[in-house]
Amino acid sequence: MAERSFAKEVQKLKLGAGETFTGEGILAITKALLQCGVGYVGGYQGAPISHLMDVLADAQEILGELGVHFEASASEATATAMLAASVHYPIRGAATFKSTVGTNVASDALANLASGGVTGGALIIVGEDYGEGSSIMQERSHAFAMKSQVWLLDPRPNLPSIVAAVEHGFELSEASNTPVMLQVRIRCCHVHGSFVTKANRRPPMTVADALENPRRDTGRIVLPPASFLHEKEKIAKRLPAAVDYIKRHGLNETFGGPGKVGIICQGGMYNGVIRALQRLGLADLYGDTQVPLHVLNVTYPLIEDDLVAFCEGKEAVLVVEEGQPDYIEQALGAMLYKAGATVRLEGKGPLPMAGEYSGQVMLDGIGAFLRKHAGDMLAPEVRAPNVPAPPLYEDLARTVPMRPPGFCVGCPERPIFAATKLAEQELGKHHIASDIGCHLFSIMPPFELGATTMGYGLGPASASAFNSPDAKRRSISFVGDGGFWHNGLTSSIGNAVFNRNDGVIVVVDNYYSAATGGQDILSSRATNRTKSTKHPITNAIKGMGVKWVRHVERTYDVGTMRDTLKEALTTDETGPKVIVASSECMLNRQRREAPLRKKAAAEGKRVVRTKFGVDEDVCTGDHACMRLSGCPSLTVKHLDDPLRDDPVASIDENCVGCGNCGEVADAAVLCPSFYQADVINNPTAWDRFWFGLRGRVISFLQSRRERRRLVFGESRA
Hints:
38% of the residues lie in helices and 16% in strands. It folds into 4 domains: 12-248, Thiamin diphosphate (ThDP)-binding fold, Pyr/PP domains (Rossmann fold); 253-386, 3-Layer(aba) Sandwich (Rossmann fold); 414-509 and 539-588, Thiamin diphosphate (ThDP)-binding fold, Pyr/PP domains (Rossmann fold, 3-Layer(aba) Sandwich); 606-707, Alpha-Beta Plaits (2-Layer Sandwich), CATH 3.30.70. It has 26 helices and 23 strands. It is α/β, with parallel strands linked by helices. It starts with 19 loop residues before the first strand and ends in a 9-residue tail after the last helix.
């Protein structure tokens, strides 16, 4: 169950020629694919492109009507390998995934695809997430494009430009027999706007048609001697064809008139550049600028003639290129040197080498460049302010404490790591290898577990070097159910079996690919009408050859989880020990059950919700529940009692009733200060009877206790 449904929005995909589409960038990309006659689409979810997969999943009926095949791929490599259908057949295909971690996984398939080339258009839509988004490491897609000679599009972040980039991407691919990578940043994915639509097109050849008429061209197979000719073909035929198409169709854009300075920017940086120029008084709200701009909607290959011509007659040019290395700036410098140009080239210097180019960074960098080379264009107060400009916003770091990333309210992964801490209290510290996913938050307080993370599904593999026969302790490694099916079954579990690794592997099974938005996977327990689910992880592990397998069905049982970990760490049995720890992602459970509860309550049906609270009179204020749980619904509360200085624990309204906070405080025994309350909508007569009886019993016991309490009377003179 994805975190967001696009069931209503996908109806916009049916818009015909001449109508106006209004909506989000992600949806516009999908509409553009259908307008281009795409034959098949595959992909793997990951921010900021996850919602594209969700849109495609919700649009299966529309895709089916057009004869478009869609599948949620097992990995980014699988998605890219799908594009092999476009190698011999004139079928347009698209793959989508997160970059750069996704591109890392896809690189083998990408290199082979680029080597042999394609007949039908092949478009790779990557969610570029450089900066403070959701990426683990800070890298760019640009290097992959250059390495494999895949053309890289980076459109301006508005819907008409994005749609045009999809259309030109397919045509450019077919014109040059080369796959094309379309790079969309987070602001591009989620920008809202409108564009005039075209009619959806059925693919001229579907994948079913291709199966009926198989083709084979040995010249496109990556195998000697053809593979030796592919490199020559890239330079002699494909690159000139791509350059010709880009120039003929004017894919790169120039704005503004002549001037002594200019700015060359990536297409995705255009909005930020214009905003900075607006704040400097050199552009208006409609993008009309006094500073000449050359916008690279195609960042690879670079069109040397256009770039040199733009720089001609200018004293200085600024290259706005987010991230490092500065590929574009270096390439442009070489072009200008060969052309004998005397223009001063700036880039990294006014602008930082690394880090996201936020609005303030752009303003500072472009402002510094213009003050140096074109100060007369700026207003006097901008060119030489008498006093430093006051900050637009206060430094929040000074007033707001840091909030480390952590688990959601009621997360079933939290008790797994609480149990790990409890096991380590008895058995000592262990080397712990982490993995990509929600469980990676275990490295943060309050758990502070995990030493490394090497890639999706590679947690156990990253601990394989510690498989020493001389070691007295076993390593512990974690992998999520998403990572397990993505890469972990073979790369981690299979590797551990083959090498007789004696470590402990914990598979965190929350029923979904939760970190990327709650998409269904092979082991999901939901019924999916288009996908095959309900395949137990334990069966796959045993099928891979693991002998020692334990399944903890309810992770909230901290005592059982702790004891299972202790057994795995101390057993005499050799070989990998695998624990599958299962409980449903609470967020997805809430999304699934909340509408059903609301509907049932509205229909007058009995609905029970479990909540927990803390008895202030019993709580000692040691806060073990918080230290071992870290649940966001737990907070502290100061009492008015002058005899109690320490604040007690308190549970706010965000509580989802998992009970972990009380249970983990004493490992399988609910802390006596915690109480459970059932909130009942539409109670029955029996519920009312028991409610009244309990109230009377409690009142009687309270009154009796009050009568027995020692009370000191007022002193008399």
